[in-house]
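To: structure desk
From: M.T.
Subject: fold request, one chain
Message: Could you run this one when you get a chance? Sequence is below, nothing fancy, just the single chain.
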Amino acid sequence: QVQLVESGGGLVQSGGSLRLACAASGRRLNRYAMGWFRQAPGKEREFVGSITWIVGATWYADFAKGRFTMSRDNAKNLVYLQMNSLLVEDTAVYYCAAAASSWDRVDYWGQGTQVTVSS
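Reply: Done. Structure tokens follow.
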């Protein structure tokens, strides 16, 4: 069993930055890649990016490349999503996720944290 708790959401102006954190706990965390998803009102949940615990390899959705950066702190079991140059369309609930095989089969979800970008 893995528990994921997000923090760091809030209200920010367009062009600003936010850093989200995901605290992971449970057994055998290294089995999982860690990811961030988001869901805007009226839209489907979409993949933002992912990172592996051991190597720290990252992947990003096209909209996130160049603006968002994922990192991790293995000692504290924390995963971060640094978001810069935020746009109004980045407004969404952001979810932390853990998957052992693929992002089509997420094993665990966090409860989500709201990010609101104002114009």
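Reply (cont.): The radius of gyration is 13 Å. Let me know if you need anything else for the meeting.
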